[in-house]
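User: Show me a protein chain along with its predicted structure.
Assistant: Here is one chain, sequence first, then structure tokens.
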Amino acid sequence: MTRTRPPITLVVTLALLGAGVTAAASAEEPRQPRRRLQQVDLPRSNPEEQGIDSLRLKRAVDFLIEQKDVYRPHQVIVVRHGRRVLDVCFYPFRRGWRHDLASVTKVVTGSVVGAAVYAGLIRSMDDPVLGFFADRAIANRDANKEAITVSNLLEQRSGLATSDYARADELERTMFASDDWVQWILDRPMAEAPGWGHLYTSWNPHLAAAIVAQATGMTPLEFGRRSLFGPLGIRDLVWPADPQGINHGFGDAQLLPLDLAKLGQLYVDMGTWKGQQLLDPSWIERATSPGPGPNPLGWPAEIRVGYHWEIGPDYYSGTGSGGQVLRVFPARDLVVVLVAGGGAGYANNTYSSLAEVLCGAYLLPAIRSSSPLPTNPAGITALESRVAAAALSDEGAPQPVPPPPAVASTVSGRRYVMEPNPFELYSFTLTFGDGPEATLQFSSAGSASLDMTVGLDGVFRFFPGERGTTWRAKGWWEPPSSFVVLLDQIALYHYFRMSCLFVGSSATITTKDLSGTSPSFTMVGHAE
């Protein structure tokens, strides 16, 4: 029920970025490896020890709590000088849960490519792509296709298939429906010469992931565990794969937010971790520098693009649907990780994106020095109190369950077989018992099922969701015969309102993603 989507056009509030930052903090520093004694888990630190004002960090947490219903943050981590100065979780997300990275996965893919380059398994980013697939018959070969390089894929400038965004969405659906995604990509005709026009697609990074497999003899996940994830101490990682076992280069990877921060710190330290070189500094320089060609359509002139990094005046960011962000300020030795649940700040241009507001108005102004500040026990206590408050449930007490309408007894336990639908759902069953919970069960054509526990007393119920994540749901009846479910996929970042209208022997399910990151859709089922 989830699919990674291209990010909404970037909303930038550049005027905020330099506000309140001292000259010492904003001065450029040479980009070179920093050798640290303790890097394993980015240990916690008193903010003042890292030159950061703890009271200003408290104001950042205040803002996040106050605007929680707008932005729906799940966890925010701030690392300075290799130390965590802020690590705050927001209910219902819990510390230690993995989070779907959406398109920040593209940065992970690029990093695994970089590790293969450092290992000498990919000779150069300028190697031609087709050379990695000499064992395949490839359609529509021409001089332009022969000229595509590995770098073109990570820059999203391959020229493959189309130069039109609307057409790209349609083609991606065709790719996902094919039996061999890599062959589908390789066979596409060229729309333009590589290395110039930028088009955000899923097929470019997925082909880069396939190159890792060809070059290393391992899947991107397997090679990443040996060369990158293992040395970084990243153990809890889920990364779905295509029918041939190639991990999705474009999205769907799940990491602990703390592990994503480790990846950001690796870039700050120019590829070193615990004294071990994992990525070449020159490769990182290239990956985080603007590539050739015009900016993506609709992007501000000040924001350029590298290897899936959005490059600002003093930072670079990996971003993904639902508000997932890895932002690195190399000169300030600062890493910011934000994982969220698809709040309006990401999906709706009425608001600036959360990362822009959080960094520009709160986090950067909290940096007061490159050296330690005087200790501030009162500020630290206030910050810790707000961090603890953010993790508390914001739900009210359970309410009496209203009497159900007559239709409830008719539909309860009845199996409805679905008409053909994009999600390949085969049937659903809604069951009511005597208590304050209902069960909504969906089955797919492959006989797999998902059982959702739905609170009827105004309180969400948690249950196992897809890909090892935890979801929650609550529901109620709306006259005369609609049962409404709020489904929060939490770490998979979607927040659905599902309305099940029962008329005679038929049921119509209308689903709206309240986060705005997926289109609405309607499915129809008929009672057996």
